[in-house]
UniProtKB/TrEMBL annotation:
Any one of the GO BP annotations: polyphosphate biosynthetic process
Location of the VTC domain: 43-259
Source organism, top-level taxon: Bacteria
Protein name: Polyphosphate polymerase domain-containing protein
Pfam families: VTC (PF09359)
Organism: Candidatus Allocopromorpha excrementipullorum
Amino acid sequence: MMTETTEPVVTSSDAVTAAHTVTVAPAVYGRLLVMEKPPGRFRHEMKYGLDGTADIILSSRLRKLFRHDRHADSHGSYRVSSLYFDTPYDKAMWEKMAGIRKREKFRIRYYNDDMSFIRLEKKYKAGNLCSKRSASLTFQQVVRLLEGDAEFLLESGDALLTEFYSKIKGQLLRPVTMVSYMREAFLYDPGNVRITIDRQLRSGSWYAGFPADMRKVADVSEGKGVLEVKYDDFLPDIVRMAVQADGLRWQAYSKYAASRRFD
Protein backbone atom coordinates (compact mmCIF):
# COMPACT_ATOMS: atom_id res chain seq x y z
CA MET A 1 0.00 0.00 0.00
CA MET A 2 1.54 3.30 -1.09
CA THR A 3 1.16 6.85 0.16
CA GLU A 4 2.78 9.58 -1.91
CA THR A 5 4.69 12.27 -0.09
CA THR A 6 7.74 14.45 -0.45
CA GLU A 7 11.19 12.89 -0.16
CA PRO A 8 12.35 12.88 3.46
CA VAL A 9 15.46 14.72 4.48
CA VAL A 10 17.21 12.60 7.09
CA THR A 11 20.64 13.27 8.53
CA SER A 12 22.97 10.88 10.30
CA SER A 13 22.20 12.69 13.56
CA ASP A 14 18.58 11.57 13.18
CA ALA A 15 19.77 7.97 13.31
CA VAL A 16 21.64 8.64 16.52
CA THR A 17 18.63 10.42 17.99
CA ALA A 18 16.28 7.60 17.04
CA ALA A 19 18.60 5.00 18.53
CA HIS A 20 18.80 6.90 21.81
CA THR A 21 15.07 7.56 22.14
CA VAL A 22 13.94 3.95 21.92
CA THR A 23 12.35 2.90 25.18
CA VAL A 24 13.23 -0.64 26.15
CA ALA A 25 11.30 -2.06 29.08
CA PRO A 26 10.96 -5.56 30.51
CA ALA A 27 7.84 -7.47 29.55
CA VAL A 28 6.26 -9.93 31.95
CA TYR A 29 4.22 -12.89 30.67
CA GLY A 30 3.22 -15.26 33.42
CA ARG A 31 6.45 -16.03 35.26
CA LEU A 32 8.60 -15.17 32.24
CA LEU A 33 10.49 -11.87 32.44
CA VAL A 34 11.74 -10.76 29.02
CA MET A 35 14.08 -7.82 28.61
CA GLU A 36 13.82 -6.78 24.97
CA LYS A 37 17.12 -5.92 23.38
CA PRO A 38 17.29 -2.44 21.82
CA PRO A 39 17.27 -2.30 18.02
CA GLY A 40 20.62 -2.63 16.31
CA ARG A 41 22.23 -0.04 14.09
CA PHE A 42 19.72 2.14 12.27
CA ARG A 43 19.92 2.60 8.51
CA HIS A 44 18.22 5.12 6.28
CA GLU A 45 15.51 3.67 4.07
CA MET A 46 13.83 5.29 1.06
CA LYS A 47 11.16 3.67 -1.11
CA TYR A 48 9.84 4.61 -4.53
CA GLY A 49 7.00 3.20 -6.60
CA LEU A 50 8.04 2.14 -10.12
CA ASP A 51 5.92 1.89 -13.22
CA GLY A 52 7.10 -0.17 -16.17
CA THR A 53 8.95 2.64 -17.94
CA ALA A 54 10.82 3.82 -14.84
CA ASP A 55 11.73 0.22 -14.03
CA ILE A 56 13.32 -0.31 -17.46
CA ILE A 57 15.28 2.95 -17.30
CA LEU A 58 16.52 2.53 -13.75
CA SER A 59 17.38 -1.16 -13.90
CA SER A 60 19.40 -0.62 -17.08
CA ARG A 61 21.31 2.25 -15.46
CA LEU A 62 21.93 0.44 -12.18
CA ARG A 63 23.29 -2.65 -13.95
CA LYS A 64 25.97 -0.51 -15.57
CA LEU A 65 27.00 1.24 -12.35
CA PHE A 66 26.78 -1.28 -9.51
CA ARG A 67 27.40 -4.95 -8.87
CA HIS A 68 24.63 -7.45 -8.22
CA ASP A 69 24.14 -9.23 -4.93
CA ARG A 70 26.26 -12.40 -5.00
CA HIS A 71 23.22 -14.57 -4.23
CA ALA A 72 21.46 -13.59 -7.46
CA ASP A 73 20.86 -15.93 -10.38
CA SER A 74 22.18 -15.40 -13.91
CA HIS A 75 19.54 -12.70 -14.44
CA GLY A 76 20.58 -10.83 -11.30
CA SER A 77 17.48 -11.73 -9.27
CA TYR A 78 16.28 -14.08 -6.55
CA ARG A 79 12.94 -14.83 -4.90
CA VAL A 80 12.18 -13.55 -1.40
CA SER A 81 9.36 -15.22 0.56
CA SER A 82 8.10 -14.08 3.96
CA LEU A 83 5.52 -15.37 6.41
CA TYR A 84 4.22 -12.37 8.39
CA PHE A 85 2.86 -12.45 11.92
CA ASP A 86 0.34 -10.07 13.51
CA THR A 87 -2.01 -9.86 16.48
CA PRO A 88 -5.73 -10.78 16.31
CA TYR A 89 -6.38 -7.03 16.02
CA ASP A 90 -3.82 -6.53 13.22
CA LYS A 91 -1.60 -4.26 15.30
CA ALA A 92 1.29 -4.19 12.82
CA MET A 93 -0.96 -3.42 9.87
CA TRP A 94 -2.95 -0.65 11.54
CA GLU A 95 0.14 1.01 13.00
CA LYS A 96 1.51 1.19 9.46
CA MET A 97 -1.76 2.57 8.09
CA ALA A 98 -1.94 5.17 10.88
CA GLY A 99 1.62 6.33 10.24
CA ILE A 100 2.92 5.42 13.70
CA ARG A 101 6.60 6.40 13.64
CA LYS A 102 7.94 3.67 15.92
CA ARG A 103 6.66 0.22 15.10
CA GLU A 104 7.82 -3.36 14.64
CA LYS A 105 6.86 -6.52 12.83
CA PHE A 106 7.95 -10.14 12.84
CA ARG A 107 8.35 -12.42 9.84
CA ILE A 108 9.90 -15.73 8.87
CA ARG A 109 11.90 -15.35 5.67
CA TYR A 110 13.58 -17.65 3.18
CA TYR A 111 15.06 -17.25 -0.30
CA ASN A 112 14.18 -19.06 -3.50
CA ASP A 113 13.10 -22.53 -2.32
CA ASP A 114 16.05 -23.06 0.00
CA MET A 115 14.83 -24.55 3.28
CA SER A 116 18.37 -24.75 4.68
CA PHE A 117 18.51 -20.99 5.27
CA ILE A 118 15.44 -19.71 7.17
CA ARG A 119 15.42 -16.67 9.41
CA LEU A 120 13.07 -15.16 11.96
CA GLU A 121 13.36 -11.40 11.51
CA LYS A 122 12.19 -8.49 13.61
CA LYS A 123 12.11 -5.23 11.67
CA TYR A 124 11.97 -2.03 13.68
CA LYS A 125 11.00 1.30 12.11
CA ALA A 126 11.61 4.77 13.55
CA GLY A 127 10.33 7.22 10.96
CA ASN A 128 12.48 6.84 7.85
CA LEU A 129 15.08 4.80 9.70
CA CYS A 130 15.06 1.04 10.04
CA SER A 131 16.85 -1.68 11.95
CA LYS A 132 16.63 -5.46 11.73
CA ARG A 133 17.53 -8.39 13.98
CA SER A 134 17.43 -12.03 12.92
CA ALA A 135 17.80 -15.55 14.26
CA SER A 136 18.13 -18.91 12.52
CA LEU A 137 15.28 -21.41 12.33
CA THR A 138 15.17 -24.90 10.85
CA PHE A 139 12.39 -26.13 8.59
CA GLN A 140 11.29 -28.55 11.32
CA GLN A 141 11.07 -25.69 13.83
CA VAL A 142 8.89 -23.65 11.48
CA VAL A 143 6.57 -26.63 11.06
CA ARG A 144 6.33 -26.99 14.85
CA LEU A 145 5.57 -23.29 15.17
CA LEU A 146 2.77 -23.46 12.58
CA GLU A 147 1.33 -26.45 14.42
CA GLY A 148 1.08 -24.32 17.57
CA ASP A 149 4.18 -25.56 19.40
CA ALA A 150 6.28 -22.53 20.37
CA GLU A 151 8.02 -23.93 23.46
CA PHE A 152 11.29 -24.55 21.62
CA LEU A 153 11.64 -20.77 21.19
CA LEU A 154 11.89 -20.35 24.94
CA GLU A 155 14.32 -23.24 25.24
CA SER A 156 16.63 -21.90 22.51
CA GLY A 157 18.46 -19.38 24.68
CA ASP A 158 18.41 -16.90 21.79
CA ALA A 159 17.27 -13.39 22.81
CA LEU A 160 15.19 -12.75 19.68
CA LEU A 161 13.50 -16.17 19.74
CA THR A 162 12.69 -15.67 23.42
CA GLU A 163 11.20 -12.25 22.67
CA PHE A 164 9.16 -13.78 19.83
CA TYR A 165 7.84 -16.39 22.26
CA SER A 166 6.82 -13.64 24.68
CA LYS A 167 4.94 -11.81 21.91
CA ILE A 168 3.17 -15.02 20.86
CA LYS A 169 1.99 -15.55 24.43
CA GLY A 170 1.46 -11.92 25.44
CA GLN A 171 0.15 -10.31 22.23
CA LEU A 172 -1.16 -13.51 20.61
CA LEU A 173 1.01 -13.10 17.53
CA ARG A 174 0.02 -15.61 14.87
CA PRO A 175 0.84 -16.22 11.19
CA VAL A 176 -1.26 -14.05 8.90
CA THR A 177 -0.11 -14.06 5.29
CA MET A 178 2.62 -15.20 2.90
CA VAL A 179 4.29 -12.60 0.70
CA SER A 180 6.69 -13.31 -2.15
CA TYR A 181 8.44 -11.26 -4.83
CA MET A 182 11.41 -11.28 -7.19
CA ARG A 183 14.25 -9.04 -6.03
CA GLU A 184 17.10 -7.54 -8.04
CA ALA A 185 19.72 -6.17 -5.64
CA PHE A 186 22.70 -3.88 -6.22
CA LEU A 187 25.55 -3.06 -3.83
CA TYR A 188 27.86 -0.07 -3.45
CA ASP A 189 30.46 -0.12 -0.67
CA PRO A 190 30.76 3.61 0.15
CA GLY A 191 27.90 4.35 2.53
CA ASN A 192 27.14 0.62 2.71
CA VAL A 193 24.45 1.18 0.08
CA ARG A 194 21.99 -1.49 -0.96
CA ILE A 195 19.58 -0.78 -3.82
CA THR A 196 16.78 -3.22 -4.57
CA ILE A 197 14.01 -3.45 -7.14
CA ASP A 198 11.17 -5.76 -6.11
CA ARG A 199 8.78 -7.08 -8.76
CA GLN A 200 5.92 -9.57 -9.10
CA LEU A 201 4.58 -9.13 -5.56
CA ARG A 202 2.37 -12.08 -4.67
CA SER A 203 0.33 -12.81 -1.58
CA GLY A 204 -1.42 -15.92 -0.33
CA SER A 205 -2.78 -17.61 2.75
CA TRP A 206 -0.28 -19.31 5.04
CA TYR A 207 -2.75 -22.21 5.19
CA ALA A 208 -1.44 -23.23 1.76
CA GLY A 209 1.49 -24.82 3.58
CA PHE A 210 5.12 -24.05 4.19
CA PRO A 211 6.83 -23.49 1.92
CA ALA A 212 3.97 -22.38 -0.31
CA ASP A 213 4.17 -22.33 -4.11
CA MET A 214 3.81 -18.55 -4.41
CA ARG A 215 3.73 -18.69 -8.20
CA LYS A 216 0.18 -20.04 -7.95
CA VAL A 217 -1.25 -17.27 -5.74
CA ALA A 218 -2.54 -13.77 -6.41
CA ASP A 219 -0.31 -11.16 -8.04
CA VAL A 220 -0.95 -7.95 -6.06
CA SER A 221 1.72 -5.81 -7.73
CA GLU A 222 -0.70 -4.24 -10.23
CA GLY A 223 2.14 -4.25 -12.74
CA LYS A 224 4.34 -2.02 -10.59
CA GLY A 225 7.62 -2.49 -8.79
CA VAL A 226 9.22 -1.01 -5.69
CA LEU A 227 12.65 0.62 -5.55
CA GLU A 228 14.32 0.67 -2.13
CA VAL A 229 17.53 2.46 -1.19
CA LYS A 230 19.18 1.68 2.15
CA TYR A 231 22.37 3.26 3.45
CA ASP A 232 24.23 4.06 6.67
CA ASP A 233 25.45 7.59 7.43
CA PHE A 234 25.52 9.14 3.96
CA LEU A 235 24.17 8.58 0.46
CA PRO A 236 26.89 8.96 -2.20
CA ASP A 237 26.11 11.39 -5.02
CA ILE A 238 26.53 8.67 -7.65
CA VAL A 239 23.71 6.70 -6.03
CA ARG A 240 21.49 9.75 -5.55
CA MET A 241 21.82 10.62 -9.24
CA ALA A 242 21.46 7.02 -10.41
CA VAL A 243 18.02 6.57 -8.84
CA GLN A 244 16.51 9.67 -10.46
CA ALA A 245 13.77 9.24 -13.06
CA ASP A 246 10.84 11.27 -14.34
CA GLY A 247 7.82 10.99 -12.08
CA LEU A 248 9.71 9.06 -9.41
CA ARG A 249 8.38 10.04 -5.97
CA TRP A 250 9.26 8.87 -2.50
CA GLN A 251 6.43 6.76 -1.09
CA ALA A 252 5.58 5.10 2.18
CA TYR A 253 5.07 1.47 1.18
CA SER A 254 4.60 -1.81 2.98
CA LYS A 255 4.51 -5.12 1.14
CA TYR A 256 2.77 -6.61 4.16
CA ALA A 257 0.04 -3.92 4.17
CA ALA A 258 -0.36 -4.23 0.40
CA SER A 259 -0.88 -7.97 0.70
CA ARG A 260 -3.62 -7.52 3.32
CA ARG A 261 -5.84 -5.55 0.95
CA PHE A 262 -7.11 -8.83 -0.44
CA ASP A 263 -8.02 -10.48 2.88
